[in-house]
Design brief:
The chain has one domain. It is about 40% helix and about 20% strand. The protein contains three helices and four strands, in the order αβββααβ.
C-alpha cells in the first residue's frame, strides 16, 4: 500500500464516522471516504495532499482561491 493510501486510511479511521467525501488526485487516483461520496475534492497539485492530511484549512482555502483545489457536490439543492 502506498504512503498516500496509508495516510488517507489513517485519516479515515480518525474521522470515526463515514465522511461523504471523495478525494481526487492530480494523477487521476482517487480515495473514497464513503461508499457513495456526495462531495469531491480535487487536489490539482501534489503539495495539497500534505495540507489536506495536516488539516491546514488556511492553506487549503488559499489553494481553493487559486484554483488548485476544486470542490464539487453531487447533491443538488432546490431553488427557492
Amino acid at each position: 500500500m502506498s504512503l498516500r493510501r496509508r495516510l488517507l486510511e489513517h485519516l479515515k479511521s480518525r474521522l470515526g464516522v463515514a465522511a461523504s467525501l471523495r478525494v481526487q488526485f492530480w494523477d487521476g487516483d482517487r480515495f473514497d471516504f464513503a461508499p457513495a461520496p456526495a462531495v469531491t475534492l480535487t487536489l490539482c497539485s501534489r503539495r495539497l495532499l500534505r495540507l489536506f492530511v495536516a488539516g491546514d484549512m488556511v492553506g487549503l482555502g488559499d489553494a481553493y482561491v487559486r484554483g488548485d483545489l476544486v470542490v464539487e457536490s453531487t447533491t443538488s439543492y432546490g431553488s427557492a
